[in-house]
Amino acid sequence: MQRYIPLIARAFLSAIFLKSAFDKITDFAGTQKYMAQNGIPLQLTGLLLVGAIAFELLGGLSVLIGYKARWGSLLLILFLIPATLIFHTNFAERMQVIQFMKNLAIFGGLLMVYYYGSGPISLDEKT
């Protein structure tokens, strides 16, 4: 059973990023509007949104399949830092505190992937 735990953990970690990327792709304009409402200049939202989608897809898939998972976890950490600081620091709102804490937990999981690697059931272990 212990062979499967890193795979299951990677699947859970990557799910939030892959779902988020899908949501951004399917509601690109709505996401741009949300970004602008949170202080991102409207002229930059398109470029930043494409970058966010790329980081979430590449990092999420990398962690999920365990191919270059350490690099994938770093991509997701690099995405998560500004996303957390820009969108989840209004601690007067309970939901934003929850989102901030959730992101801290995700940071922890990604740091574990970075430190320990992807585990025995992964493409990294096959190469």
UniProtKB/TrEMBL annotation:
<dbReference type="InterPro" id="IPR051907">
    <property type="entry name" value="DoxX-like_oxidoreductase"/>
</dbReference>
<feature type="transmembrane region" description="Helical">
    <location>
        <begin position="47"/>
        <end position="67"/>
    </location>
</feature>
<dbReference type="InterPro" id="IPR032808">
    <property type="entry name" value="DoxX"/>
</dbReference>
<dbReference type="Pfam" id="PF07681">
    <property type="entry name" value="DoxX"/>
</dbReference>
<keyword id="KW-0472">Membrane</keyword>
<feature type="transmembrane region" description="Helical">
    <location>
        <begin position="97"/>
        <end position="117"/>
    </location>
</feature>
<feature type="transmembrane region" description="Helical">
    <location>
        <begin position="74"/>
        <end position="91"/>
    </location>
</feature>
<keyword id="KW-0812">Transmembrane</keyword>
<comment type="similarity">
    <text>Belongs to the DoxX family.</text>
</comment>
<protein>
    <submittedName>
        <fullName>DoxX family protein</fullName>
    </submittedName>
</protein>
<keyword id="KW-1003">Cell membrane</keyword>
<keyword id="KW-1133">Transmembrane helix</keyword>
